């Protein structure tokens, strides 16, 4: 069976028409099921803490593991897509997600929940989400931008609906039965994957290096030079491992490209605080006397505003006034997001929390719309995939440790407000680091490169250390726009 990731489609017969729109609907649903799901975890925070007699830090490991694996599984998902295709990968992800949530409903300890709902469900969500994004590149060509914009709306739809469904089911039947139902709901990702039938592709040409390797192997086996043959095999395996790491984890770019270095470090530091409100807002509101259903509505409010604000943020960033300055727009949004957390820390009144959600969701929409667009500005597009791999790995590490550290802070102080102070600190410091870092790098480049002609692409001229790339090759692989839970 031909696989989607092997080559470009033979013709445009399947693109931008007919079944492509059904694939788009399936992708929107897959995003709503996977990326929106971690947002509902805060609804169960107090119940899990009570049933397992766990501290805030111990309970927060559950959502942090799920979110971290959702990001860190990207390189593994890319390997599966290349080997088995998008359809199989999406269905495998749906199966893992469903099994993980069903198993979590029988958990006897919080540590079992880390493995079932955290690792297994998080990894399955990663496979379903990223493979469904990739398949759009093969079904859409002329309308690819529109398709990816509509697909990203699934994140906001999930963010809106999951907390409301979670709170209703929790009130009616408890968290164990709710998790059991969630397992069945996440299995719908398998249905989404079944819709994504493979696009006919050209078979890959035989690899010259592979043929050469087989001939060398046969020659040495026939001559009986086993020691030398083993040495060649060892060297070839080492070279293959190095090429794989180079393909999916761009360490060379990290050490050579200062813009990529500053941005990666800044975002990795930022997400330590960015995910905290989505986890702790509901228990914080309940602890301060807000009704449980109204508390869950706060997260849904953030998701509902994101449905409209993310497309507007994308259009805003495309204006000519922001050409070459998107990093500064991004840093400003991160700064606003950090300062908004002070609103929540000062007062826990419901009206104040609604105001906080409005400000937070606006800045969150800009961050979500720009986070990968800025990454495209600072690295060459032919290395974007490998740069994205390292970027998401480092991002997942800080996502993993951020919520438990905040929970530990709550356990020590006894006040949830310190979570929002900590979130504000991470966000504001990351915004200043990225903004001042790129400003300094831009000034340095102007001093050292005054004699060089300006780059052809003005969107990179302000802060990129790499030469502008030529226009995309029409015969190259399909463009992929990456969407994350951010």
Automatic annotation (TrEMBL):
Domain of life: Eukaryota
Record keywords: Membrane, Transmembrane, Transmembrane helix
Pfam families: MFS_1
Residues that span the membrane, as ranges: 21-45, 61-81, 88-107, 113-139, 146-165, 177-196, 262-283, 295-315, 327-347, 353-375, 387-406, 418-439
Basic and acidic residues bias locations: 447-463
GO terms under cellular component: basolateral plasma membrane
Record's subcellular location: Membrane
Membrane-related topology note: Multi-pass membrane protein
Major localisation: membrane
Ranges for region Disordered: 447-486
UniProt GO MF annotations: monocarboxylic acid transmembrane transporter activity
Domain Major facilitator superfamily (MFS) profile per the UniProt entry, residue ranges: 20-447
Keyword Isomerase found: no
Name assigned to this protein: Solute carrier family 16 member 5
Gene coding for it: SLC16A5
């Amino acid at each position: 069976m031909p696989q989607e990731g092997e080559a470009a489609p033979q013709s445009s017969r399947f693109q931008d028409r007919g079944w492509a729109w059904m694939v788009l609907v399936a992708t929107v649903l897959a995003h709503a099921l996977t990326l929106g799901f971690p947002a509902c975890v805060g609804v169960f925070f107090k119940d899990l803490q009570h049933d397992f007699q766990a501290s805030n830090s111990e309970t927060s490991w559950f959502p942090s593991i799920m979110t971290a694996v959702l990001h860190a599984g990207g390189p593994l998902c890319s390997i599966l897509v290349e080997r088995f295709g998008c359809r199989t990968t999406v269905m495998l992800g749906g199966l893992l997600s469903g099994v993980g949530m069903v198993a979590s409903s029988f958990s006897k300890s919080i540590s079992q929940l880390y493995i079932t709902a955290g690792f297994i469900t998080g990894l399955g969500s990663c496979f379903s989400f990223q493979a469904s994004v990739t398949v759009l590149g093969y079904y859409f060509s002329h309308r690819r931008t529109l398709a990816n914009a509509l697909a990203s709306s699934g994140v906001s739809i999930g963010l809106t609906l999951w907390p409301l469904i979670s709170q209703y089911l929790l009130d009616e039947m408890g968290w164990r039965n709710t998790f059991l139902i969630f397992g069945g709901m996440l299995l719908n990702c398998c249905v989404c994957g079944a819709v994504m039938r493979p696009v006919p592709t050209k078979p890959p040409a035989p690899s010259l290096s592979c043929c050469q390797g087989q001939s060398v192997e046969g020659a040495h086996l026939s001559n009986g030079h086993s020691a030398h043959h083993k040495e060649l095999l060892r060297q070839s395996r080492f070279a293959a491992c190095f090429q794989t790491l180079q393909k999916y984890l761009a360490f060379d770019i990290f050490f050579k490209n200062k813009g990529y270095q500053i941005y990666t470090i800044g975002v990795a530091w930022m997400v330590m605080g960015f995910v905290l409100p989505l986890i702790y807002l509901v228990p914080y509101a309940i602890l301060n006397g807000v009704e449980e259903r109204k508390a869950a509505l706060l997260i849904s409010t953030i998701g509902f505003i994101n449905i409209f604000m993310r497309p507007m943020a994308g259009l805003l960033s495309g204006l000519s006034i922001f050409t070459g300055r998107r990093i500064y727009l991004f840093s400003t949004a991160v700064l606003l997001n950090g300062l908004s957390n002070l609103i929540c820390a000062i007062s826990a009144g419901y009206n104040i929390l609604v105001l906080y959600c409005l400000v937070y969701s606006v800045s969150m929409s800009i961050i979500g719309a720009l986070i990968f667009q800025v990454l495209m500005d600072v690295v060459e597009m032919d290395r974007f995939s490998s740069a994205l791999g390292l970027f998401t790995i480092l991002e997942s590490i800080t996502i993993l440790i951020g919520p438990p550290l905040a929970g530990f802070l709550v356990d020590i102080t006894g006040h949830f407000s310190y979570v929002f102070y900590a979130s504000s600190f991470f966000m504001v410091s990351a915004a200043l680091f990225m903004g001042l870092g790129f400003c300094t790098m831009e000034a340095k480049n102007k001093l050292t490169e005054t004699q060089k002609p300006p780059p052809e692409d003005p969107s990179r001229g302000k802060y990129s250390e790499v030469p502008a790339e030529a226009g995309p090759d029409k015969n190259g692989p399909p463009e992929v726009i990456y969407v994350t839970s951010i």
